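Troubleshooting log. The previous structure file for this entry was overwritten by mistake, so regenerating from the original sequence record. Sequence copied from the archived sheet and checked twice against the printout by T.R.
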Amino acid sequence: MIPACDGRPLSDPDWERDYTFAEGEGYLAVTDGRYKYVHVQKGREHGRELLDLREDPNEFENRIALPEYQEALAALREKMIEHVIPAILAGFVLVYLEKFFKKITPQAISMIVVPFLSLVLAVIAAHAVLGPVGWAVGSWVSKVVYAGLTSSFRWLFATVFGFIYAPLVITGLHHMTNAIDLQLMAEFGGTMLWPMIALSNIAQGSAVLGMIYLQKHNEEAKQISIPACISCYLGVTEPAIFGVNLKRGFPFISAMIGSAIAATVSVGSNVMANSIGVGGIPGILSIQPQYMGRFAVCMLITMVVPFVLTVVVGKKKDVR
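Regenerated output below.
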């Protein structure tokens, strides 16, 4: 915004940028000044547009399917993919800088010093380090994940991911999957990753349901397990994982096994989501309509397998 502060006109060369990005609720967009690529992912609405701003300044005609525009489309899609992870990394750096400066700054001047220093250093880091590194990592991760999901060994990739996703939740690394999902959606028009995440959530809830059955006469335990089960089926797994499943161990493992089986079936049957949605059972609303039946079968697996395993092991351990 320096040119604006100096009162320079829009024709000033300092205004020029190779690419400009825009984000909003349910959409991402990138333009190089001539072309604009828009990716919409809002609820069950899903679409992509490529607009020629020179030939169609009012943005009426979607040219994404025209052969002569494929080179421009590929370039803009690549830039959109590269843009996601650097933004997340910059956000993480900003959070840690803010915490650091809050600790060392006197309270009397913290309202001024902390935001200023945090933002300045975060912006410098974003441009000098995080941007180039994040762009390279984002493009590489997207290609690796998609290769894993589309290769002849995709069932193995899905099995491993379905099994390890719940441990990722414990470490907090599961938040990075949102960036990968966005990259996959921007590049390939959908994601096979998100269905597996929703299935893992359901599996943890089913393991808790098994504990509710085992402890049906334990009122104190049910006060924790019943709300945890409900929240898990609605997509929030932390109460179930930390409040119930990890305490005993075997319910957590049972859920991981159920999740791995369901993930294998999901990817093996090409289940794809339009966008990131609410985890757990409501996740079926994000699935592309032609795959909803297959996803329902996978949901059934995550409800039955963890529940049965938890009950069987729990009875051997005489859990009450």
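Strands lie at 20-24, 27-31, 35-42, 45-52. Archived copy saved in two places this time.
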